[in-house]
Amino acid sequence: MRVRINIGLDFDGNHTFDWLETADAHAIEIPKSTLDRWTAEREAFTVAYLRWKRVMEEIEDTLYRAEHARSEKEAAAEPALAYAAASGHRRVRG
């Protein structure tokens, strides 16, 4: 089958590949079975990639919440530590 091919990158850096059947002089001959296989694999990749992105977003959200909780814990502990240090410093007799 003679096709015109458009190859590029999407915003995520994944290759895009579109083809259109044409009789143009610049068309390339590619077997229909190869184009059909590409279409099926691209659909499978798109579904898998979206699932992967969803899992990565969940992991990033979990990491963000864990870091936020740790920061809040540390911030809450700082005044108590400062008070303990100040209290201990007052006991020193000079």
What ranges have pLDDT less than 50 throughout 5 or more consecutive residues?
Answer: none
Strand content: 15-25%
Termini distance? Answer: 96 Å
* Helical fraction: 55-70%
The averaged pLDDT comes out at 86
Apparent shape:
rod-shaped
What string gives the helices and strands in order?
EEEH
Strand arrangement within the widest β-sheet reads 2-1-3
Cα-based radius of gyration, to the nearest Å: 30 Å
Structural class: alpha+beta
Count every helix, treating DSSP H or I runs of 4 or more residues as helices.
1
Biggest sheet architecture: 3 strands, antiparallel
- By DSSP, the count of extended strands is 3
Describe this structure in words.
The protein contains one helix and three strands, in the order βββα. By secondary structure, it is an alpha+beta fold. The longest helix has 59 residues. The model has no long low-confidence stretch (mean pLDDT 86).
